[in-house]
Design goal:
The protein is mainly α. Helix content is 56%, strand content 3%.
Length: 667
């Protein structure tokens, strides 16, 4: 891949597809592109497909999400509202948009772990193609190929698109938004800008307010570069913003307009409000480390999984320096940050070297887009809590790959032109990236011990070849420079590719958190506690939602007998039985799609069902059996004493199964 791309960059001047092509030119048609483009992108897609699908038949269920997907296959009401249980008593603690493709896949192929993973694979391949298209529209074919290759070989991306979580859909949709905005900015067209608003609105259904963090980058791109008057630019942005808001708020408005008795309770809240779930539980809760308290918004007070110890409150502690440098720590840098130096240098040079150009210069505007995107999410993830959720990094990998692709084309052309003003950038990018990669790699001394020496050797060789290319005849110099460029690309991409390839190893391939390498093992074997919250839209509540083994949907003999007994004696009740925690209900939902009533939501502190509502279920015959025990929840502790006092225990059963009759509720 490196040699192919080096040849591609070298030919940019001849083909017109280079980064510094004349402002305002359109991307080439297929017939005008160099021959290597016919196979370069397909090769990248094949590599991506292998990384995303390898061992997919042994995919794991992602706890809490998989149960919801199963419930969504049982009824269209559960599908629409994202109900955790088939009886639609409570929702998942997120907006359900990211689960809709999974539920549809399970309806088509049957409920299997691989059927839930398959939509993420498709989303990943589409992301590679669309990132290539967006970067080609902005910076030319060669930059696009480099960006697509770097993106596919990012460890966090290799792990992300084989994991049944929210971020694959989110990443795809924000790439679509960037592509549409680039198209709109080139000719000041409002229709693609409206499309960008739709894409961001749909991404809101996957990641809620985190999706809006991309808006400053998209808006600034259009504002500074669209070739029309300022008044029209502002008007276009207002209209597109309204479209984004309407699509973003669509599900929340639907839930708000639906009477509470006709829909599930909204998890994560104390007031049954979708607005509280989005704003309080899934946004403000993520920033407790900087003195933000979400309880007044209707959010539950804790974000840890039911049955686990609450996270240590941090709302009254001062943010530490470590909070703001976590993106450079080994656990995240090893997953997404191998190309930090090259991307940062590309952003700076792209802006500085293009100064003095017309306001509408699309190349400079593109550097603004990707640079602001990267800086915004860096700040968001630094201030918010990430925990073990490596899959959050997909949205960071997008601008890193784009900047790397365009930057390397930029640096190569500056090197070929010679002179001291700009030629230094290529060797600086190579040296800086290899040095940083070596630093990250040595943080894991027992993992791939050959990686650091190999990257340094390639980097030194690349610099030597580039230096030698300054001497000799024209043909020899060109060949030497091309060899140096190929070695440079190999040196920079090797560490990332090596870590990404660990998903081919069963030891690292199914972490459930999108991690690769030893980070995946560390996360997979750590005690299942809730990690601290994460930034806008998802985080702490996810902690504990690690992947379940592939046999996580099977019931043991005791569970099968209990389910068979309660079904045989259900007597027309809506629910087979109630449990005091979703964790107890989980196996029955996964294995059989059973209508089990959970209590307390994901955290175990959500006030549903209330004692009065529970007694009403019993009094009306909608609930006859209650299974006590399991992880402690607030509602379980409140309801269990009444059950023990008024409902006889079913004899000859090891489980704490109680039978409640309508007459019990009247006592």
């Amino acid at each position: 891949m490196a040699s192919t791309t080096s040849t591609a960059i070298a030919s940019a001047a001849r083909t017109g597809g280079g980064l510094l092509a004349r402002t305002g030119t359109r991307p080439q048609g297929t017939q005008d592109r160099p021959g290597y483009t016919r196979f370069a992108l397909p090769v990248i897609l094949v590599v991506a497909a292998v990384l995303f699908t390898w061992d997919i038949q042994h995919s794991a269920y992602h706890a809490f999400y998989a149960e919801t997907a199963r419930s969504m296959t049982e009824s269209w009401k559960a599908f629409l509202f994202g109900a955790f249980d088939p009886g639609s008593s409570i929702t998942i603690d997120k907006l359900p948009g990211f689960l809709w493709p999974q539920a549809l896949s399970a309806r088509i192929f049957g409920f299997h772990p691989w059927a839930l993973t398959l939509p993420q694979v498709v989303e990943g391949l589409l992301s590679v193609v669309l990132l290539h298209r967006a970067v080609r529209r902005w910076a030319g074919e060669n930059a696009a190929l480099l960006a697509a290759g770097a993106f596919a070989l990012t460890p966090a991306i290799a792990g992300l698109f084989r994991t049944a979580v929210e971020d694959p859909a989110f990443t795809l949709l924000v790439i679509l938004a960037a592509d549409a905005t680039l198209r709109a900015a080139r000719e000041a067209r409002v229709r693609p800008l409206l499309a960008a608003g739709v894409w961001v609105g749909l991404s809101f259904q996957a990641k809620m307010l985190e999706a809006w963090a991309v808006l400053p980058a998209l808006g600034l791109l259009y504002l500074i570069s669209a070739p029309t008057a300022l008044r029209r630019r502002l008007a276009h942005l207002v209209v597109a913003g309204a479209m984004c808001l309407a699509v973003s708020a669509s599900w929340v408005l639907l839930v708000t307009a639906t009477p509470a008795k006709d829909r599930p309770y909204i998890d994560g809240t104390t007031n049954n409000s979708a607005v509280s779930q989005v704003v309080g539980y899934n946004f403000l809760n993520r920033f407790s480390s900087i003195h933000i308290d979400a309880r007044k918004t209707g959010s539950v007070a804790v974000s840890t999984m039911a049955g686990t110890a609450p996270a240590t409150p941090s709302g009254h502690s001062r943010p530490t320096a470590a909070l703001w440098v976590k993106m450079f720590g080994p656990s995240l840098a090893s997953q997404v940050g191998w190309l930090y130096p090259a991307a940062a240098l590309a952003a700076v040079c792209g802006l500085v070297w293009r100064r003095g150009r017309p306001r509408t210069d699309p190349l400079r505007a593109g550097f603004v887009l990707w640079g602001v995107w990267l800086a915004t999410y860096f700040l968001v993830f630094s201030a918010g809590s990430i925990g073990g959720h490596t899959y959050y990094m997909g949205v960071v990998a997008v601008p890193l790959a784009a900047l790397f692709g365009a930057g390397m084309v930029q640096f190569w052309r500056a090197w070929r032109r010679g002179g001291r003003a700009r030629a230094w950038a290529l060797p600086a990018a190579v040296a800086g990236t290899v040095a940083w990669s070596s630093f990250v790699s040595v943080q894991f001394p027992s993992f791939l011990p050959w990686l650091t020496p190999a990257a340094i050797t390639l980097g030194v060789g690349a610099l030597a070849l580039l230096a030698l290319s300054r001497k000799g005849a024209g043909g020899a110099r060109r060949r030497m420079a091309l060899l140096g460029l190929g070695a440079a690309l190999a040196a920079m991409l090797l560490p990332s590719a090596a870590w990404a390839s660990t998903v081919l190893n069963p030891t690292y391939g199914h972490s459930g958190m999108g991690s690769t390498g030893p980070v995946a093992v560390r996360r997979h074997t750590a005690p299942q506690r809730t990690a601290p919250h994460h930034p806008p839209a998802h985080g702490a509540p996810d902690a504990g939602k690690a992947a379940k083994p592939s046999d996580g949907a099977s019931l043991d003999d005791r569970q099968r007998r209990l389910l068979a007994y309660t079904r045989a004696h259900q007597d027309g009740a809506d629910y087979v039985f109630a449990t005091t925690s979703w964790r107890t209900a989980s196996a029955y939902i996964l294995a059989a799609g059973a209508k089990v009533l959970p209590m307390g939501g994901f955290t175990g502190t959500v006030p549903t069902p209330t004692e009065a509502a529970f007694r009403q279920l019993v009094a009306t015959g909608r609930l006859r059996y209650v299974l006590l025990g399991g992880p402690a929840t607030t509602q379980g502790r409140a309801i269990a004493p009444w059950v023990r006092a008024h409902c006889p225990r079913v004899p000859d059963r090891t489980a704490q199964l109680y039978r409640c009759s309508p007459s019990s509720a009247g006592r």
